[in-house]
UniProtKB/TrEMBL annotation:
Organism lineage: Eukaryota, Metazoa, Spiralia, Lophotrochozoa, Mollusca
Presence of the UniProt keyword Mitochondrion in the record: yes
Matches recorded under InterPro entries: NADH4_N (IPR000260), NADH_UbQ_OxRdtase (IPR003918), ND/Mrp_TM (IPR001750)
The UniProt record lists the keyword Signal: no
EC numbers on record: 7.1.1.2
GO MF annotations, alphabetized: NADH dehydrogenase (ubiquinone) activity; NADH dehydrogenase activity; ubiquinone binding
Family: Belongs to the complex I subunit 4 family.
Protein name: NADH-ubiquinone oxidoreductase chain 4
Function per UniProt: Core subunit of the mitochondrial membrane respiratory chain NADH dehydrogenase (Complex I) which catalyzes electron transfer from NADH through the respiratory chain, using ubiquinone as an electron acceptor. Essential for the catalytic activity and assembly of complex I.
Catalytic activity, as annotated: a ubiquinone + NADH + 5 H(+)(in) = a ubiquinol + NAD(+) + 4 H(+)(out)
Alphabetical keyword list: Electron transport, Membrane, Mitochondrion, NAD, Respiratory chain, Translocase, Transmembrane, Transmembrane helix, Transport, Ubiquinone
Compartments, as annotated in UniProt: Mitochondrion membrane
Name of the gene encoding the protein in the UniProt record: nad4
UniProt xrefs under Pfam families: Oxidored_q5_N, Proton_antipo_M
GO biological process, one term: ATP synthesis coupled electron transport
Length: 447
């Protein structure tokens, strides 16, 4: 509760060095949140706020990514004085809404913060985007998410009217009879599947990523996609949706969509669109692990949410560094970066192998757990899994080789320069991916 009041105070303050103060407070809050990782299985309550093993790791990720958003935007916003105070205000308000969403026990407030997080994201895209097409990208984002989540509101109101409470624990521990058709339950989950996004409902994601500034891409990939995954986990556990007759259909769409988006990634020339499409495959695999209803699938899904948030955000930071220096996102114009900056080439290599799920990163453990749960669910899924692993490794290698190998352009030597804040930004993405491997048994108490 004190953390929330501190965030509200930071939003209302007006100081000259407010940007730096907000950045440091976000990073400090991250270390404060570490104490919640050791909370008991039943969690901690404070009025309407509730934090347990499941939500604490996502609150930690939200504070960390929000602080790195300010660090990544230092050159583009702070040094160029591009509505600097308003930008940090939007980032901080977005972080507060997401943290409150992860900590809510009331279904109505849960829905409210789920929708409110959309407003600062659209403001980031419209206010600091690159091309005029950002208006269409913002419209896609609004229409897809608002249209899909209105049935969720109706479902919440119907459930609460029948059972006389909005609190999730009343449904979880009392096991009340919902007396609702399975169609309504599926429609309620539809809002989270669009936010995830499920394949065939994903068109808003590449458009929003391509037109968003670096902070918008980081928050979309690092945190906002996790709202759908977290909502899916909470609803499946709270209402005991263990007998869904359409889970096979959703699982096949998720996994086959992951294969198709991986194939799209192989043929992509826009580097941001490539990273955005790779997120759809990873989140589809995570949703498949959740719907398999095996414990290893739930643990692998949570690990995938954490590792993908850091890995995808780091890849967007690396692509933005190239964009700021060369003013192009086309893979055809890159090449030979290994000759220009070998240290940054190492970071590219580590992020790419992390994205494909190779050791020594936490992504490997998450993908192994998800593959085990999917194989236990149906042995026929092994074919799709093998295809996804092969094509996932292929597009990451294509991305790395296209940028780092080959002959380099003559203007690189004039344009290309690096500073220590860029190295710090990438290291702050890589270090948690390596450190979390030391406490891999943490998630064994998620449910």
């Amino acid at each position: 509760m004190g953390m929330i009041f501190s965030l509200i105070l930071l939003l209302m303050m007006k100081l000259n060095n407010l940007w730096e103060m907000r950045f440091w407070f976000m990073m400090i809050f991250t270390f404060f949140t570490l104490k919640y990782l050791g909370s008991e299985d039943w969690g901690l309550y404070s009025y309407y706020l509730y934090i347990d093993i499941l939500s604490s790791i996502l609150v930690l990720l939200s504070f960390w990514i929000s602080g790195l958003m300010l660090l990544a935007s230092y050159k583009g916003v702070k040094q160029n004085n591009n509505k600097m105070m308003f930008f940090s205000f939007v980032v901080l308000s977005l972080c507060m809404m997401i943290v409150l969403f992860f900590m809510m026990t009331s279904l109505l407030l849960f829905y409210l913060f789920f929708e409110m997080s959309l407003l600062p994201t659209v403001m980031l895209i419209l206010g600091w985007g690159y091309q005029p097409e950002r208006l269409r990208a913002g419209l896609y984002l609004m229409l897809y998410t608002v249209f899909a989540s209105l049935p969720l509101l109706l479902g919440i109101l119907m459930i609460s009217e029948k059972n006389g409470s909005y609190m999730m624990d009343m449904f979880k521990y009392n096991k009340m009879n919902l007396n609702m058709s399975m169609i309504w339950l599926g429609v309620m989950l539809f809002a989270f599947l669009v936010k995830l996004p499920l394949y065939s409902m994903h068109l808003w994601l590449p458009k929003a990523h391509v037109e968003a500034p670096i902070a918008g891409s980081m928050v979309l990939a690092g945190i906002l996609l996790k709202l759908g995954g977290y909502g899916l986990i909470r609803f499946l556990s709270t209402f005991s949706f263990m007998n869904l007759y359409f889970d096979e259909l959703i699982m096949v769409i998720c996994l086959w969509g992951g294969v198709l988006t991986s194939l799209i990634c192989v043929g992509q020339s826009d580097i941001k669109a490539l990273i955005a499409y790779s997120s759809i495959g990873h989140m589809g695999m995570m949703a498949g692990g959740l719907l398999s209803k095996f414990m290893c699938g739930w643990e692998g899904g949570m690990l995938m949410m954490f590792s993908h948030g850091l890995c995808s955000s780091g890849l967007f930071c690396l692509s933005n560094m190239l964009y700021e220096k060369i003013n192009s996102r086309s893979l055809f114009l890159y090449g030979g970066m290994l000759n220009v900056s070998s240290s940054m080439s190492l970071f590219w290599f580590m992020m790419c192998i992390s994205n494909m799920g190779a050791p020594p990163f936490i992504n490997l453990v998450s993908e192994i757990l998800l593959f085990i749960s999917l194989y236990l669910y149906s042995q026929m899924l092994a074919i799709i899994i093998l295809m996804m692993v092969f094509v996932g490794g292929l597009y990451n290698l294509v991305l790395y080789v296209s940028i780092q190998c080959g002959s380099y352009m003559s203007f690189y030597n004039v344009v290309y320069s690096e500073n220590s804040s860029e190295y710090l930004l990438i290291l702050l993405h890589l270090i948690p991916l390596l450190m979390f491997l030391l406490n891999i048994s943490y998630l064994s108490g998620v449910m």
